[in-house]
Automatic annotation (TrEMBL):
<keyword id="KW-0326">Glycosidase</keyword>
<dbReference type="InterPro" id="IPR023476">
    <property type="entry name" value="Pep_tRNA_hydro_II_dom_sf"/>
</dbReference>
<dbReference type="Pfam" id="PF00723">
    <property type="entry name" value="Glyco_hydro_15"/>
</dbReference>
<dbReference type="InterPro" id="IPR012341">
    <property type="entry name" value="6hp_glycosidase-like_sf"/>
</dbReference>
<keyword id="KW-0732">Signal</keyword>
<keyword id="KW-0378">Hydrolase</keyword>
<dbReference type="InterPro" id="IPR046966">
    <property type="entry name" value="Glucoamylase_active_site"/>
</dbReference>
<dbReference type="GO" id="GO:0004045">
    <property type="term" value="F:peptidyl-tRNA hydrolase activity"/>
</dbReference>
<dbReference type="GO" id="GO:0004339">
    <property type="term" value="F:glucan 1,4-alpha-glucosidase activity"/>
</dbReference>
<dbReference type="InterPro" id="IPR008928">
    <property type="entry name" value="6-hairpin_glycosidase_sf"/>
</dbReference>
<keyword id="KW-0119">Carbohydrate metabolism</keyword>
<feature type="domain" description="GH15-like">
    <location>
        <begin position="65"/>
        <end position="300"/>
    </location>
</feature>
<comment type="similarity">
    <text>Belongs to the glycosyl hydrolase 15 family.</text>
</comment>
<dbReference type="GO" id="GO:0000272">
    <property type="term" value="P:polysaccharide catabolic process"/>
</dbReference>
<keyword id="KW-0624">Polysaccharide degradation</keyword>
<protein>
    <recommendedName>
        <fullName>glucan 1,4-alpha-glucosidase</fullName>
        <ecNumber>3.2.1.3</ecNumber>
    </recommendedName>
</protein>
<dbReference type="GO" id="GO:0000324">
    <property type="term" value="C:fungal-type vacuole"/>
</dbReference>
Length: 354
């Protein structure tokens, strides 16, 4: 099942953005310009229509603000992302208290999924540059050895976050987080499908598919292993992770067919994940559980509990009562204190306090 390929920026053309953008120059023709005018005309009519509600009005006002804010957090030219590598999405410009000037695989995948959707809806050369930089940075990150593991067996792809210069973050963290590779694959697949539809299947196959294939291989190999959820607080099996993994394999199989071959592992494993997703349904609660299989305290909680007790601070792992979307009896919370906040922060590393 392991078929991970090592890719670096050197595996791409010398200037990825220029080389990938070059084939698209033909689209800057009268046909594209006419299409752009048509889109602008349609959007103009929509904007001229009075909003049906205050919510719709707010969304229309907020959209350009939110869009600019997202771009501001993407390196290396983003106004909040100075010092980060091209294509890197920073979680926050905050560098201390709390320190979130890092890049998360999950966050980056979600951001670029949205940006790819926007790009597919309306061609934008500047946005295309950022998407291609994201592909390049993703290829480089896949080969970075980190506390979760290496590329050769795929384990390193489950690392949650990296430094903004594309080096490994080696501090204590909730790892692995197995939704990241799936979300990254989904984002890049969206762009790859656009390439195929616009006559550039060779670029999708030669440049994008190797990156996507690594992430799909990770999903196929590790989908049934536990890890931390998207909030980085619960260790177990996550519905969000499973749903993301299922979508990645389904879309990966579709892209493979569009490129003229087959992703056998995608087609074989996707039905198993879909079946597994049914186990998150709680008949008694009549809703989907966010997390399951949390019957033991993860090593991280034990380590934090030991650190607290070494400082003379009372600490204990608390079993969840099962009144929310967390399975009853799950050991997911560490109670610490009473103690001064400065001491608690020293012990927990500024983890979220309830």
């Amino acid at each position: 099942m392991s078929f991970f390929h090592g890719l670096t920026l050197e595996a791409f053309p010398a200037n990825l953005t220029s080389s990938l953008a070059q084939p698209f120059m033909s689209y800057l023709s009268s046909a594209l310009l006419l299409g752009s005018v048509a889109v602008q005309h349609i959007l103009g009519n929509i904007a001229a229509t009075p909003p049906a509600s205050d919510l719709e009005s707010f969304i229309q006002r907020q959209y350009p603000i939110a869009y600019d804010g997202v771009l501001c957090n993407i390196g290396s030219e983003g106004c909040q992302a100075q010092g980060s590598s091209p294509g890197v999405v920073i979680a926050s410009p905050s560098r201390e208290d709390p320190p979130y000037f890092y890049t998360w695989t999950r966050d980056s995948g979600l951001v670029f999924k949205s940006l790819v959707d926007i790009f597919v809806d309306k061609f934008d050369p500047a946005l295309q540059d950022k998407i291609q930089q994201y592909v390049a940075s993703s290829a480089q990150l896949q080969g970075v050895s980190n506390p979760s593991g290496e590329l050769w067996n795929g384990e390193g792809l489950g690392e949650a976050k990296f430094n903004v210069d594309l080096t490994a973050f080696t501090g204590d963290w909730g790892r692995p987080q197995r939704d990241g590779p799936a979300l990254r694959a989904i984002a890049i697949i969206g762009y790859a499908k656009w390439l195929v539809s616009n006559g550039h299947a060779s670029t999708a196959e030669d440049v994008l598919w190797p990156v996507v294939q690594n992430d799909l291989a990770y999903v196929a190999q590790y989908w049934n292993q536990t890890g931390f959820d998207l909030w980085e607080e619960v260790y177990g099996s996550s519905f969000f992770t499973a749903a993301s993994q299922h979508r990645a394999l389904v879309e990966g199989a579709s892209l493979a067919r569009a490129l003229g071959f087959q992703c056998k592992s995608c087609e074989a494993i996707a039905p198993h994940i879909l079946c597994f997703m049914q186990s998150f349904w709680s008949p008694s609660a009549k809703h989907i559980l966010a997390n399951t299989s949390m019957t033991v305290s993860p090593p991280r909680l034990k380590k934090l509990r030991a650190a607290a007790r070494a400082q003379g601070v009372t600490a204990e792992v608390i079993a969840d009562a099962g009144r929310t979307q967390i399975e009853a009896g799950s050991l997911t919370v560490l109670g610490v204190g009473p103690a001064p906040k400065s001491l608690v922060d020293k012990i927990t590393g500024h983890l979220k306090l309830l």
